[in-house]
Amino acid sequence: MNRFYLAIVATLLCMACATDNVDHIQHNEDSSNKIHNWGDSAAQGRLMVRLTNSTENISVEGITLEVEPLFPTTTGNDKLDRWMLVHFDRSLDLKAVAEKIAALECVERVEFDLKMKRISSEALPMPTSRPEPTRSVEMPFDDPELPWQWHYYNDGSVGNFCVAGADINLLNAWKYTAGDRRVIVAVMDGGIMYDHPDLKDNMWVNEAEQNGQLGIDDDMNGYVDDIYGYNFVKDSGKVTADDHGTHVAGTISAVNNNGYAVCGIAGGTGNNDGVRLMSIQIFEGEDGCYQHQIVRGYQYAADNGAVLINNSWGYEPDVYFSDNQFEQYDSALKNAIDYFQANARLDGVMEGGVAIFAAGNETYTQPCYPGAYHKYVCVTAMASDYTAAYYTNYGPGCNIAAPGGDANYGTVYCISSTSTSLLYGYEYMQGTSMATPHVTGCAALALSYALKQGYTLTPDYLRALIQTSVHDINQYQTGSKQFFDYDSGSYYDMNLAPYAKKLGSGYIDAHLLLMQMDSTPCLYFKTGVASLLSLDEYFGAGSEDLSYQGCEVSDEVRDALGMQGKPRIENGMLSIKCNNPGSGRIKVNAIIGGQTVGGGDLMGGMVVEREFELVVRGAKAENGGWL
Fold first, then answer.
1. Which residues of the chain have pLDDT under 70?
2. Cα–Cα distance measured from residue 354 to residue 346, given in angstroms and rounded to the nearest whole number
């Protein structure tokens, strides 16, 4: 493993060859098609069994079976409550026992309990020196690493491989919200370092367990001493710190404005107002969970208050080739993720949850499952210049792109977030593992804004908002770029054309996401350039023939954007020049139905007001994207 191939998604090893793996599973099914998901990593002496009825008893002559519910507390979900974990003598032939259990009329399905193996992720070596970025805007928070977090706001100043606009436009989003403690985000990954100086104040805390008795399930949720989440690897309430999980968590909600290390997308303003992080630990060191432990993690997250779950892991990309295969062979996992999406909730805002997954880092022409499934959000990675990151998977099933970094450009062009090493408190990593929490963090901002504005959402609508709050990434996937293959020790040209239309709907814009929630159109302008923008899209094709009462913009916005003169309407075109990057509201009033406003002794038209968000950046493409 080369040291720069970082933050690779965890892999469930079924077989070495994907095609053989699927054929092998099919070949080993019995005549009733009840047995699924065989793999060499299957646990001995244990099977996952779904009954036709949760009250049925399982009994096989000559074999002593110990049966327990797969989920420690009743879920109220028919499919989940019918899953059982069946234990027996480890010396018995696993397949033979599976066949005997599958022969029972009360058994609907049998799955082997496969082991999730972790592929290690490594932090990049810290740069020995880096130039001080000359930022075009003032940083809103005092976290010292924020100016280098180009993935939040990229004005091209961090280095030669940073191109203005290749970011999530976070600074403009922060003008509206930076988080809300009522939003809880589960991180299914390695354990979060819950006492990290940049994370501890934004950790979810199970107060019943924190204030309860050691070794007692004080809140009766089926888990003992689960204060910050649960370690499903060790079946313990003690969450252990992991580099990968800690880095992912920091991108979502490192504490902002505390004068330390990095910022998190929804980490608040330093007033105890960041979204909270729940650790669903499925890796510890090189050890990973069995599948029955992972599925329990989804129930735990939903039942304990999480409304979003970040999944920077997945199978090898060639384990499954269709949604049907995933549904057929991985029913327990799918049932559990679906349970989260149906039963997670944010009181007063959203009934149901959203699961967000990494596409994978194998440079493969399809993403990993479970993320590839059509009801889950699947995230690809882009570099600091809009191009596809050299490692990212792409193709059908990919929904959206976000910054993941590219180590071929250098360390500072990767993602800076929290580290288990407190020498600096942060470190650099790359991967779709790093891109995914950017999308999760944006979703957390959206829910925070919904709380602020009193909006209600559905999970489907939030998924739609996420995937449409984007700018075009396809225009940048032309020509080639060099990348260094650390295994061969050689440079190669990476053809970018195959990535066009394969990375998702576009790259996410956090500010646009919030504006879409307000139904406020965004108007994009280039810094320092006098611009004319047609209003046909907003007032109709005859906008040039309308009468306008003018534009309303506050002195605060005019000063912040460095407006030269007052915006005006000329022949249905908005004329404006802004010398400073940033964003702010403007209102345009048109008279429709006459040249004057009707009323009293006059016959005339009505005033129609449209409110817009002005967005001023360093460069702008013709289609509204950023160059």
1. 1-32, 117-122, 619-627
2. 11
